[in-house]
Design a protein that fits this description.
The complex is a heterodimer of chains A (about 210) and B (about 280). By secondary structure, chain A is an alpha+beta fold. Chain A is about 20% helix and about 30% strand. A 4-stranded antiparallel sheet of chain A has the order 1-2-4-3, covered by helices on one side. In chain A, strands 5-13-6-7 form a 4-stranded mixed sheet, with helices on one face. In chain A, strands 10-9-12 form a 3-stranded antiparallel sheet. The longest helix of chain A has 11 residues, at about 30-40. Chain B has about 280 residues and is mainly beta. Chain B is about 5% helix and about 30% strand. Chain B has 3 helices and 20 strands. Chain B has helices at about 35-45, 190, 265-270, and strands at about 1-10, 10-15, 55, 60-65, 70-75, 80, 85, 90-95, 100, 110-115, 145-150, 170-175, 195, 205-210, 230, 235, 245, 255, 260, 280-285. A 7-stranded mixed β-barrel of chain B has the order 12-19-16-17-14-13-20. A 6-stranded antiparallel sheet of chain B has the order 7-6-9-4-1-11, with no helix packed on it. In chain B, strands 2-3-10-5-8 form a 5-stranded antiparallel sheet, with helices on one face. Classes of the chains: A alpha+beta (about 210), B mainly beta (about 280). The interface between A and B is large, with 43 and 38 residues.
Chain lengths: ~210, ~280
């Protein structure tokens, strides 16, 4: 990925998104984060939301188009400020663990080693309150979503899908592969902020399958 | 002062204008399903823009512990105070101890029941809206529950507000994109088809049944499309080739490509379309 010197060339593509928002399609996740930062305080912007490589801007599309034109390209930003590392102990006993091993050509213990072996980072939030899409882990763990979503996934399920990993904050339907579970509470309204995982947060998974508790 | 829920045979939810600015927490907007009906009720009762009110599918009985002023807007439904029929879209004086019955709508889906002074509920992230997908905000109303009402001066007289909900086929205006370019014919097939509202529709999305659209063109990378933020009114095309129009309780991000977005003014029309209603899309001029 070419960054830095040539980022002036990578202006985001502005896509129509109804009569009360526009969608910016950026060259990379880092560029999307930078554009969200650059525009979130602009007077024309009511609200923003971040996707993998896109930024949603709510507001009048005409005014937003002008604001975008008048805004110089910000340097891509990899890390959100004040990103503390969150450690998540996982029991790796998910129902799809063997399937993931098959799909990736790894053994079950290699899947666990890959998942815990390097830190992940919350790329963006979505799907449910407190759900973070975690990227930047071991690329060998890239598996597509399940062809048919499960009707019920328990809270705390640790899953893989579309190159991301994530943890279901509450019982819900879900289309990702379940590889484990954690007791960590992802969403708590009595906490400020209620979400444990915010965009930019670094996450390390630790294997607790052996029943070892801290 | 409060309203007591005597019986609630269908769904009745507390809603305000919604919860914005929390997408980084994975929290979507929720809020009024029919913003036109909510605005009608607020105007009748001099309510603030952020007032909370009840949205129900009907068959709801409420008792007032003190004299209150109310209004019922949205889908037209039979209304009675102590068994005496009263008008929809009109300021209603309800004496202490009186029972207000809101029947099932004659046409449309959602009936709005508002009280001068507004309804009190514990705000969650700045809003008293119930997000049915996220499980945030007040629980659905249940029999025996007491809903506190704020103090209010007697509202000024206002002319009745006719309901915008008339039933029948609906024509919904759209803006193509953001992902219309995933289909070689763009929105042509979406505009040409006649759709029907699927009974599995809810506040998360209005599902439409009709001719399946061809699958979207694969991405050059050969990968699945990355999740991206969505807005209410986004028309997602599912793997089955059918449209789902996102409602107020939509998630922050979605994985299906969005072929077009319904314009803001036509969202109430779609929100009030019953299962089986014929829906046609047209380009916004």
């Amino acid at each position: 990925m070419t960054e830095g010197l040539f980022h002036e060339a990578a202006r985001p593509r502005l896509l129509a998104c109804g009569d009360a928002a526009v969608l910016l399609e950026c060259a990379s996740a880092e560029s999307a984060r930078a554009w969200q930062d650059a525009l979130s305080e602009a007077p024309e912007v009511i609200d923003t939301a971040l996707g993998a490589t896109t930024v949603l801007l709510r507001g009048d599309p005409g005014a937003l188009r002008q604001r975008l034109r008048a805004t110089p390209t910000p340097p891509p930003r990899a890390i959100a400020p004040a990103a503390d590392t969150v450690v998540i102990p996982v029991h790796y006993d998910g129902p799809d663990l063997a399937e993931v091993a098959d799909a990736t050509g790894l053994s079950v213990s290699e899947v666990i080693a890959a998942h815990t072996g390097q830190p992940w980072r919350v790329a963006f939030a979505g799907f449910a309150p407190g759900f973070g899409y975690l990227s930047g882990g071991d690329p060998r763990l890239t598996v597509p979503r399940r062809p048919t979503p499960r009707a019920a996934v328990p809270a705390g399920a640790v899953a893989l899908g579309g190159g991301y990993t994530g943890i279901y904050p509450r019982p819900s339907p879900g289309g990702w592969h379940l590889i484990g579970r954690t007791d960590i509470v992802l969403w708590d309204l009595d906490r400020d902020p209620p979400a444990l995982l915010l965009p930019g947060t670094e996450v390390r998974f630790v294997d607790r399958s052996g029943g070892v508790e801290r | 002062m409060s309203l007591i829920v005597e019986t609630c045979a269908t769904l009745a939810l507390i809603q305000d204008r919604g919860r914005y600015g929390h997408s980084h927490l994975g929290v979507g907007p929720s809020g009024h399903v029919d913003s036109q009906a909510a605005a009608d009720a607020r105007r009748l009762l001099d309510l603030a823009d952020d007032a909370a009110l009840i949205e129900t599918l009907g068959d709801l009985n409420l008792r007032a512990t003190r004299a209150v002023t109310m209004a019922v807007t949205g889908a037209p439904a039979p209304i009675e105070i102590d068994g005496v029929p009263v008008a929809h879209g009109r300021i209603l004086r309800v004496a202490a101890g009186s029972c207000v019955h809101v029947g099932r709508p004659i046409v449309g889906l959602w009936v709005v029941v508002a009280v001068a002074g507004g309804l009190h509920a514990r705000p969650v992230l700045g809003s008293r809206s119930t997000d049915t997908l996220a499980g945030l905000g007040p629980a659905p109303l249940a029999a025996g529950q007491s809903v506190p009402v704020g103090p209010a001066p007697v509202p000024k007289p206002r002319a009745d507000v006719p309901s915008h909900v008339t039933g029948g086929d609906v024509r919904i205006r759209i803006v193509p994109g953001p992902r219309d370019d995933r289909w070689p014919r763009g929105v042509t097939d979406l505009l040409a088809a006649t759709w029907r509202v699927d009974p599995r529709s809810d506040r998360v999305g209005t599902r439409l049944d009709g001719p399946t659209l061809p699958p979207p063109t694969p991405l050059p990378s050969g990968t699945e499309p990355a999740s991206e933020p969505v807005v209410r009114g986004s028309i997602q095309i599912t793997t089955a080739g059918l449209p789902v129009v996102l409602g107020p309780d939509h998630p922050v991000t979605g994985g299906y490509p969005v072929i077009a977005v319904v314009i803001t003014d036509d969202l109430p029309l779609l929100a009030q379309a019953r299962p089986g209603t014929v829906v046609r899309f047209t380009l916004q001029r």
